[in-house]
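ARCHIVE CARD
SHELF: 3
SLOT: left
DATA:
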Amino acid sequence: MPNITLRLGGDILQEVKLIKERTTLGRRPHCDVVMENMAVSGQHACLVLAGQQVSIEDLDSTNGTYVNGSAVKKQLLQDGDVIEIGKFTIKFSAASVAVEGREEEQEGLTVNASLAPAPPVSPVAPLSPISPMQPPADQVGRIKVIAGPGVGRELTLTKIVTTFGKPGVAVAAITRREHDYFVHLVEGIDAPLLNGSPVGQEPRLLGEGDQITLSGTVLQFSQC
């Protein structure tokens, strides 16, 4: 399965398997791959999966999309190609490789924290560059399974993005932005609930003790 590795300044921020027909890249929180830097457009580019082939398309971005140093509007990707967006770099791999991070199977619920918080992503302009450093340990968020399969398990949210859910049914994500954490729906029709209220693709800020329910599993958020 093809995948991409997002890097920034030599640090790996995220590794994503390309399972969707369109994977969006940009600054807006609802993008599949979020790159928080003003040099990146809200919806900057997208990766299009067609059979075994993957193409990159620039979505009329302000600063352009580059593949191996050349500006492109649409281009078929080859194994090892490097995409540059602002200060971020994205390496394309035709076959999936081992994902860095931690993935737990909880009777159908997958918690995927493979998005590390420091690798260099497609290059982004030097406007308000993201700091690759993690927040102080006493401010790192955590989620704990308090009901459903895997009850009692805990996960520290040290990654930029942590996804969880059942692929093909419902997948949600918790995104870290500075010292705040947001939850939103990634895909599926079974929307997650935040304290009993449905969550869509618009990110919702998490607070101490908030409960997220998805596919029969209840997670409690804490940050201390």
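SLOT: right
DATA:
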Amino acid sequence: MPVVPSAKRTRTAISEDIKQQICVYATKPENKNKTQQQVADYFNQQNPGLHIDRSTISKILGKKAKWLALVSTSASKKTFRHREVKYPQVEKALGLWVENANANNLPVSEIMIKEKAFYFAQEFNIPRENILFSNGWIEKFKRRNNIRCYRLYGEANSAPLETLFEERRKLQIILQDYILDNIFNADETGLFFRMAPNQTLASAPTPGTKLDKTRITVLLATNAIGTQKLKPLVIGSSKNPRCLHRVNRNSLPCTYHANSKAWMRNDIFGEWLEYMNNKFRAQNRKILLLIDNASSHFNPDEHNNQITEHTNDSLNLSHVRVHFLFPNTTAHLQPMDAGIIKSFKAIYKQHYIRHIIHQFEANVDLKSNKINVKEAMEYVAQAWDSVKVETIVNCWQKTGILPNNSDDDNGIQQALIAQEMANQEDQGGVELLLQQFSSLENISDESLGEINQYLEIIDLTIPTEQPLTDAEIIQLILEEENENPEINDNDKEEHLVISMQKGFNSLKTWVQYFEEQESEEFDMKEIKIFRKYMGVMHRKLFESKTQKNITSFFIPDNM
């Protein structure tokens, strides 16, 4: 009997946009119990002509992070295969060069881009005969990097202070289309996250030693009513610091990025915008984001009064509308600059002083056990969580940009007074801890002076971006590609991995401590979560010991 050939399965080309839709659909809470076959059936019904089976859904969801990170564009709807650029070093260097040119308000032409591409190719030892930067390549480069035109508008992007009233009115009109819950502001701040005293605080400082000025850049964002403070983004100088070795980075309280300068860059900000867009698309919310027009925030294709509309077209964000504030108005119109970041830094100071006091009381050598990036991120997150809703609301009211702000100055003045009181309260917490620190035994005046000096430096406005020379661009890319966890990292030795038994014992001790507390700060309803993980760890310990006992039965014949 002849063999009947099986029906040949029809291959279906699925666009990147559809793959992204599949991932968004499958991750919605109401769809979490649906099988992969049900997801396939749904999209086959929604898209006649597609023949998606369960295994295809499985493969797509297996790369969920990749597809969710894509920005939905008209191009992605037609893109079926994503190709990597041929010379990524040149691409990255050229992108940084354009960003720097924009930061310096310099005109850029396609001829200049092509010449610079040849220059960077030569610096990266790519033979000239191997490359051809055609007009088609230029167009693709511009598209990949959201660069549309290169016109210079001089001072048109700078609003004089006498126009602040007019700018406020414009913002009120723009913001009135959104509820306050969906109006956000974001801004970066540079932070010297550690500056340990020269010695152990008990002895006199050693001549010639310097204070440690390790810095990070922190991006903070919140809505107008303080009900949604987004996860902080932290930019350090090392991609793989020792303190993060073997740490699940999804567990970190901050999103972590790195480059050798610890500065904000277009690629980092673009990735953050994509994260924002995906987050609010999943919530079916369309939000407005106010932000300054620093060069690291976008490739400024238009420097005129229509910057918002043109830039949003090029950013291709479906659920985030970005409005860029004019440069010399941010100190007056940006809520983050109105006191939110100041409050955040004051609370970070409190965490730093507590850290120093704890280390001193534990007789820890502060010189060799400085705060590392992981600890800094924990303090950053705790400080951000502790910024009061009242502070955020006052700062938004203080700017006078919200639709509900009256035309007179009474509301703004009231917000100013309220915010000044909040600032005094934050500073009072710092001074109280300083008094506690100074009362410790063997604290020298020099050590106390160094702590005060560091606390003053925290308040300084330090750059979060800076133009680079061609040589610095090349060095930056090479350092990032060749970075080793043991290089360019001043953190203390990497932490030891905690065994399951030790973790279980520690959690058991913590649960017992929790059960003995009578303070209202310890909510006994929340103890369930700790007991849950005690059960998980207990089961895993049992399974590991059972497996060990079973394998011990299989004794080799030659023994």
